[in-house]
Design a protein that fits this description.
The chain is of the alpha+beta class. It has three domains: 66-159, Thrombin, subunit H, CATH 2.40.10; 173-275, Thrombin, subunit H, CATH 2.40.10; 281-374, Roll (Pdz3 Domain), CATH 2.30.42.10. Helices cover 20% and strands 31% of the residues. It is built from eight helices and 21 strands. A hairpin with a 7-residue loop joins strand 8 (181-186) and strand 9.
């Protein structure tokens, strides 16, 4: 019996040693290895992107930087003459004082959009400027001519003369999505050309009270005073927006900046270059947002639409039969959600076009055909 036990013990010892040896040197020979995790370290093949390499946007910046310019403006203002200068006694002792104009300066940014020297910028950058100077990325300075402006969208077009002027490439607005990386280029605080990075925080921002017509790209890329009129570009260096405004309590960037989409800016720019101004549709009504209290008092089923608070006498709306108290529901088949949407829909119509309007009146629905008029310049409170 003792001999059998010794044989069993030796057999078990040999088997365990064999398993240990195989498990160490050839683990794949062992059966039933489910649940085991094998980690292999691989080396990227030649030509593959190295995930460990830092992400850089140098190519996008290099493509767009030459087309972004610095804009310096000079404005002459005359101060009111003090009444003492009209006093003969005062003039006898102190002599006649000339009413000399006061000169003030401003700065901003712009984007060269054509080799012909057309520059897109914000209207508030060049507003009331008596002289406009443009400095290119290479240091060359040019005197600029104002081609035209559109205060209601805060855009203006300048032109400079020069050879081989660098022009930016327009991006596709329909490809832009929330979360996409964007770069803001401009001249903040006059320190010189600067590039900041962020993402698209939101699209279609409106009801901000910045412009009459609003459809902003919101970004957290740092935008500061002096960046106005500069470029917002995608990671390929294409123009997707014109930097316009920031939300700030201190005057510096808080990570909430707004840019005019390139689709809107391009349309307005082409109209300005072609005719010197922007043509928009107008019907001559004053609209009011429908609150829940107003909906209840008027017996409306919901707060959708725009309440017509006033109609300009002799306007297209007046001629078509639109009355105060009507609720505008749709324009040319497109739903009106609020007064801002109504404003944009009507502005996008061609003057002299006859367009169907749907309104709610006295708990019924009325269909009217309205002949669209031309929107007067700077009539921000009317539509």
């Amino acid at each position: 019996m003792r001999g059998l036990w010794l044989i069993f013990a030796q057999t078990v010892t040999i088997a365990v040693a064999a398993l240990f040896t195989i498990g160490t040197l050839k683990p794949e020979w062992l059966p039933d290895r489910r649940g085991a995790v094998v980690v292999r370290e691989t080396t990227p093949a030649a030509g593959d992107d190295d995930a460990r390499a830092p992400v850089s946007y140098r190519e996008a910046a290099r493509a767009a930087l030459p087309a972004v310019v610095h804009i310096y403006t000079t404005q002459e203002t005359r101060q009111p003459k003090h009444p003492l200068f009209d006093d003969p006694v005062f003039r006898h002792f102190f002599g006649d004082r000339e009413d000399r104009p006061q000169r003030s300066s401003g700065l901003g940014s712009g984007v060269i959009v054509s080799p012909s020297g057309y520059i897109l910028t914000n209207y508030h950058v060049v507003e009331s400027a008596s002289e406009i100077q443009v400095s290119l990325n290479d240091g060359h300075a040019h005197r600029a001519r104002l081609i035209g402006s559109d205060p209601e969208s805060d855009l203006a077009v300048l032109q400079i003369q020069g050879d081989k002027l660098p022009a930016i490439t327009f991006g596709q607005m329909e490809n832009l999505r929330v979360g996409d990386v964007v770069l803001a280029i401009g001249n903040p605080f006059g320190v010189g050309q600067t590039v900041t990075m962020g993402i698209v925080s939101a699209l279609g921002r409106s009801h901000l009270g910045i412009n009459t017509f609003e459809n902003f790209i919101q970004t957290d890329a740092a935008i500061n005073p002096g960046n106005s009129g500069g470029a917002l570009i995608d990671v390929q260096g294409n123009l997707v927006g014109i930097n316009t405004a920031i939300y700030s309590r201190s005057g510096g960037s808080l990570g909430i900046g707004f840019a005019i989409p390139v689709s809107s800016a391009r349309n307005i720019m082409e109209q300005i270059i072609r005719s010197g101004s922007v043509t928009r549709g107008w019907i001559g009504v004053e609209a009011q947002e429908i609150t829940s209290e107003l909906a209840e008092s008027f017996g409306l089923p919901n707060t959708d639409g725009a309440l017509i608070a006033g109609v300009v006498r002799g306007s297209p709306a007046d001629s078509a039969g639109i009355r105060p108290g009507d609720v505008l529901l749709s324009v040319d088949g497109k739903t009106v959600k609020d007064p801002q949407v109504m404003l944009e829909l009507i502005a996008g119509l061609a003057p002299d076009a006859r367009v169907p309007f749907k309104l709610r009146r006295d708990k019924g629905v009325v269909d009217l055909a309205v002949k669209i008029g031309k929107r007067p310049a700077m009539r921000a409170e009317r539509d």
